[in-house]
## 1
Amino acid sequence: KAPKGQFLHRIKLIEGSLRIGDKLHGEIDRAKREKIRANHSSLHLLQSALIRVLGGHIAQAGSYVCADYARFDFTHFEKISSENLKKIQDLVNQWINEGYPVITTVEDLQEARKLDAIALFDEKYEDKVRVVKMGDVSLEFCGGTHVSNTHDLGVFKINAEESIGSGIRRIECMTGYKAYSAYNDGLEHLHKVAEDLGLKSENAIDAKITSILKSNADLTHELNLLKNKLLNYEVAQTIGQAKEKNGIRYLLLKMTDNEVNLKDYAVAIKDKLDGLVFIANVKEDKVTFICALSKNAMAKGLNAGEIVKKAAMMAEGKGGGRPDVAQAGGKNLDNITEIFNVIESEVL
C-alpha cells in the first residue's frame, strides 16, 4: 500500500507499452487463490488446536502461506509427540467437517481486544482491525484472505513438525486435494508394503512387523553366540603365538582389513593371555592400533594409553585411552615392523 493506504500493484510488462491514463483490467488466478485461502484458514484452526492440545502458552512466531502448503511457527518448549500431533490434526479435520461459517468484521481496536481475539504480540495495529471468526473455535485479528466456510478446506494434513530455534517449533501442513493426495500416497505405500510382505490386507502389517522384529532379535542373538564362539576359537589359536619377556606374556599382531571388533578381540586375548596384546590393523591407507593390558601387566608399570600414543606418533597419527585399553591411528604404514621392535625393546 501507499503511505495513505491506497492499493498499489506491481506489474511486469511482457509486451506493448503503458502510458499515463491507460486503464488496465486485473484478474485473479482464482484456482490458486482458493488454495491459498484454504491453507491460510487452516492455520487459524491449527493455532486453536495447538492451544487446546498443548496449552495456552502457544503463540504465533511466524507463518507462510502459498497455494501448495502452509507453515506455522509457534512458541513451544519440546518436540510434539506423535500422539499429540494426531490429536491436533484430528481436531482441525473435525472442525472442517463441522462446517463453521468464516465471518470477517472490522472493529475498533479496543473493542476487538475485549473479544479476546488472538493477536500478534509485537504487531502494531491501526485503530480499526479486521477480525476473523470461525464458529466458536477460532477468533483472530487478520487481514488476509480466507474461505467462507471451514468445509471449503476439504481435508487437512500435517506434513512435518520440527524445531527452528530455541523454544520455537514449526509445523508444515496442507489442505484440499494436495492433502488428499498425500493421504492417498500413504495408503498406496501401505498397500505396497502389505504386498511385499505377502499379506492380503494392510491391517495385518502391525502383527507382521512385530513377528519380523522378534525373529530378527532371535537371529541376532544366535549370530552373537556364533560370533563369540568364533572369537574364542580364534583367540585360542592366536595365544599359541605369544612370547614372554621380563615376566610378561605378550602378543604383537598385524592384521589386514579385519572387520572384527578390534577392542573386543584384544580384550578377549588379554583375558586369556594375562599380559599385553598389541594389534596393528591395516585398512586401506590407514592403520589402527589397539593395546590391551591385564592387571598383571599394568602392575609391572605398563600403560596402554602411552603405548598406543607412542605407536601413533611413529605412524604420523594420534590417539590414546585408558591404562588398560587404548586405541590410536596413523597414516604411515611403513613403520609397523619398527613399532613392534620398539615395543619389544623399549616398552617391555
## 2
Amino acid sequence: MRIAILATDEQKQEIMTGKNAGSNKELIFLKNISDVKSDTEFDAFFLLTDDFPGMTFEYLSGKPVIINSVINTLQSAKLPANFSRINGWPGFLERPLWEIASHNKTITEPVFKSAGWDILFVKDEPGFIAARVLSMIINEAYFALGEKLSTRHEIDLAMRSGTNYPFGPFEWQEKIGIQNIYMLLKKLSETDKRYLIAPLLEEEFRKLISSQPK
C-alpha cells in the first residue's frame, strides 16, 4: 500500500521516530498538496499540515484521507465518509498509539495495519482523549500558578516525579503551543464548565496574540 503523507519536517521526524517509518518504503512524504496529481498515485493520504484549508478533495473521493484536526470534528467540518482525523500536535505523532476518529473504520484500519501502526478508534469529539486530559492538566497548573501555590519549575518537577510524565504541564504547553491549548479549552468549555480557562492562561494567550504582527 502506497501512502502519501503531507507533513512538516518536524512531523516527519516524529513519525519516523515513533513509528519506525523509515523502514517502510511505501510511505511517501510530501511537502505540498500540489505534489499529489490524482488519487491513482496512492492508496491513502495523510494531510497533517495546515496548508490545505479551503481546498476541495473531490479527486481523493473513495480513498482513505487522514487529517490533523484536534479541535474540529469530522461532523462539524462536514467531511466526506472517506475522511478520518488524528492528533498531529507536537509530541503526539511520536506516540506509539494514535487516537483515530473515523467515518469509516473498514477503509481506515487497513491503512494503519499495512504500516504496522497501532491505533485506537475513539469518538468524533474535540480533543480526542489524550489532548483533552492534557489540556485540563495544563489549565489546572495555570490555576495553581495564578494562585501562587507554587512555581512553574516546581509544578513541572512534581508532575514528572509523581506521575512519571515525560514533561510537566508548562513544558507540555511550551511544546504544544499555548494557542492550541487555549483554543481547545475554549471549545470544550462551551459544553463543559470543567474546562473554563484559567485567568493566567487567558492573560498569557492575550499577550501572545497582541505581540504578533498584524
